[in-house]
Amino acid sequence: MSSRRTRITEEEMNELISKLQNLLPESRRRNTSRASASKVLKETCNYIKSLHREVDGLSDRLSELINTMDNDSAQAEIIRGLLRS
C-alpha cells in the first residue's frame, strides 16, 4: 500500500459536498442552494444516526413478530428465508 495521499482540489471537494447534499432528504425538500461543507457534513451525520435508529426499531419489531409466530408456520419460514438472504 502506498503511503502517498491523493490530493483533492477545492473544486473536487465542493463537487463531493454538493453530491452529498443532494443525497440528504432535508436538502432535497428545501431545494436550497449549496450549504456550507460543515453544515452538510453535520446533516449527513444526523441523517445516518436517524437511519440507525430506524433500523434498530424495525429490527425490534421484526423480532417481536417472529417471537409471536408459530415456529413451524409458513410465514415464519418466509421471514427466516428473507433474513438469511
UniProtKB/TrEMBL annotation:
GO molecular function: protein dimerization activity
Range of residues in the leader sequence: none
Organism this protein belongs to: Dioscorea cayennensis subsp. rotundata (White Guinea yam)
One Pfam assignment: bHLH_ILI
SUPFAM superfamilies listed in its UniProt record: HLH, helix-loop-helix DNA-binding domain
Membership in a protein family: Belongs to the bHLH protein family.
GO BP terms in the entry: regulation of DNA-templated transcription; regulation of growth
Domain of life: Eukaryota
Protein name as catalogued: Transcription factor ILI3-like
Residue ranges constituting the BHLH domain according to the UniProt record: 1-51
Keyword match Transcription: yes
Keywords for the protein's UniProt record, in alphabetical order: Growth regulation, Transcription, Transcription regulation
Gene3D superfamilies on file: Helix-loop-helix DNA-binding domain
Gene that specifies this protein: LOC120282575
